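Box 3.1. Reading complex inputs
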Amino acid sequence: MKPLRRTVDLRQANTQVILRHLCFNGSMSRMEISLQTQLSAGMVTNVTSELLQSGVLIEKGLEESSGGRPRTIVDINPRHGYLIGVDLGETQVALELFDLKMNKLCTTLEPVAQEEDMLAQYICILQRGCQNLMMQAGLSPEKILGVGIGVPGIVEHNGQVSVAAPMWNWRSEPVLELVEQAVGLPVYIDNGAKAMTLAESWFGAGRGVQDMAVILIGTGIGAGIITKGALYRGATNSAGEWGHTKIVLHGRQCRCGGQGCLEAYVGAPGILASQREAGGHPQDDQFVAVGQLVDAYQRGDPTAERVMQDLTQVLGIGIANLVNLFNPERIEIGGWAGLLIGGALLDDLTACVKQNALPLSTKELSISLCQLGEDAICTGAACLVLEEFLSANLKFNRGIY
Amino acid sequence: MKPLRRTVDLRQANTQVILRHLCFNGSMSRMEISLQTQLSAGMVTNVTSELLQSGVLIEKGLEESSGGRPRTIVDINPRHGYLIGVDLGETQVALELFDLKMNKLCTTLEPVAQEEDMLAQYICILQRGCQNLMMQAGLSPEKILGVGIGVPGIVEHNGQVSVAAPMWNWRSEPVLELVEQAVGLPVYIDNGAKAMTLAESWFGAGRGVQDMAVILIGTGIGAGIITKGALYRGATNSAGEWGHTKIVLHGRQCRCGGQGCLEAYVGAPGILASQREAGGHPQDDQFVAVGQLVDAYQRGDPTAERVMQDLTQVLGIGIANLVNLFNPERIEIGGWAGLLIGGALLDDLTACVKQNALPLSTKELSISLCQLGEDAICTGAACLVLEEFLSANLKFNRGIY
DNA sequence: AAATATAATTTAATACTTAAAATAAGTCTT
DNA sequence: AAGACTTATTTTAAGTATTAAATTATATTT
């Protein structure tokens, strides 16, 4: 948020306060808004009237009263605008349409082929997918506030927005510009883990937590970090690249070219490699194989036990390092592999973290699993748009400021 | 900074903008303030008149003019208030007195004895030291805005402020309260590395850098992290505990009880241990021994070369991990051992970091040595007080807000 | 139907910012 | 040396914001 220097900025700030409060805490009466935000009643009346008039808010009936005028409930108007969230995956692209209250309205899933020019294919898919969603919901493009995209690469914010993704040989592609031209809607792009972290922080298990980290374990490993209630991006938006931090000096070779990266041990391929080293014979399909490993562990299979214990150790140290550096108040574990592993050994993992991190940093720390399901990345991507709407709102709904 | 909701908050915010601008950019004319802060000329007049009247600012003569009324230069009044900064060390306590422009006025050094009750001794030293400084400068206690203390332990902000320092067997001592009572002045305490980071960010090599990390290598290892131009503290003020992040699985035993901590390899005792492992015979005195090692390395001694190369590797990976997670735009290396090592192999170290961190995070990264000298911790500790003065200023200099 | 209670809006007072006008304080020209 | 000119700073008038208090609205209770 920009520094406030003029009186008109104040109104804008207070409008944001009210809008965000409603967005994160649900509908409520003006009276409650006033009490919870510490804005005066008159203030709330003024701001809400403006927002009611511009259609961002609606009145939603009365509260029960036990004597006295009943409180009128105001809420965000879900139909004031719509958001598209995209999970740009390696094998498929999921697109979801949300209303302004983040209700999921419809979905479309587009398969990805192995082609020469992946970028062209993805742009084509996005164009088709957005059209599809608008058709399904019967919405015209003007009603769409923007398209948020979560990608499995590194998104650089450096003048323009560019994406680097090794598996597609993207070094620094100006994806945002290209997609925006093709789709004809405002586009926001960020790393999938960051998008998911935002979703988890706003609408998942991390509601109201000021400092937390979300850890995403799948084929690759990602992390998103929330500080002071907001996504932490660092200088060029590549903060939180936890997967390739090294925890074993001269350790296992990682696909990134480095040695001893966390990902080489904790990512699904790494876990299966450990299993093979321990004499196990995992299936080819990563998802099935990790599931079987966790099953075997829970049945008490000695090989699986050894593999899982080593995994706990490495992952626990990795998390402890994160905790020592960021001192979050909560860690959330997600991703398909993360949920499988975390479900099986959350207690052991917590113990290992507490053993390896500073006592003062772990005293108030809680470790839990992510709440949002399969479409967390889509939700998070839509949150990128929502964030923009919440901050820039006044530019769209009021005069010249 | 608190959210601004009232019109009076605006004036407070704008006062801070001007005060900070003068503090970090030096004296300048009202005109320049107006241009650089984007506040209107009238605004600057109003705020500066208030600050002139309350004695926080002074007028300091005229600028050269080539036609037209010359600009009057305003500046922070160095004699409006004074700050005491303390470096609470294991062998000695250094106290320094600064004026409001951070000019060092006088110093006192108090030796520390090995006693039963260290806490009582330190409080006694602080009391005596502050008295001493005020005597030397001929100042009454009312003129002292506060005492900032940098301690070599972990300072918890959790309701009250408490300090944990293993070497003195302090688990969670209410040091702030005790010192405040004894000294009779407002006291601010933080970890020494954090204090130093603040100083380096405000008045050292990190001026104007929004995201950076300062690394302190001595007997122990510390780090301080600046994000968005401010010290990053995490949930309970124990963020940045980099020294005990693990980079070698099942590695060398660390004095913290863990295994493979960075400190066990990069802290002075760790470096000397590596030297012994390589067949070297370092002196007993850490400071002398590390100096000799660096000398030997620069003379081309093969053993020293091996030790230093391994050290570069470990330190480089540790920094790379930090870079991957925080994505700073600058890393500064300080501490007595850090300056020795960094001076000798900054280039190798930089190369190692670039090799082990993500290309996107290192593209704009620069690694350099700290600028502030011996008394960086004292300066930083005084900055803790200055920070408070700059933010709370209005509470002291204006009415009831 | 009147009394009472609470919510929401309006009003009157006050504070802050700014653009423009006025004033201050120099240099330059003649 | 006086007046013209230039630029800095202050003052002023207008506009916008917030808030406490008064008012109005809308329910329940008696």
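In summary: DSSP finds 13 helices and 16 strands in chain A.
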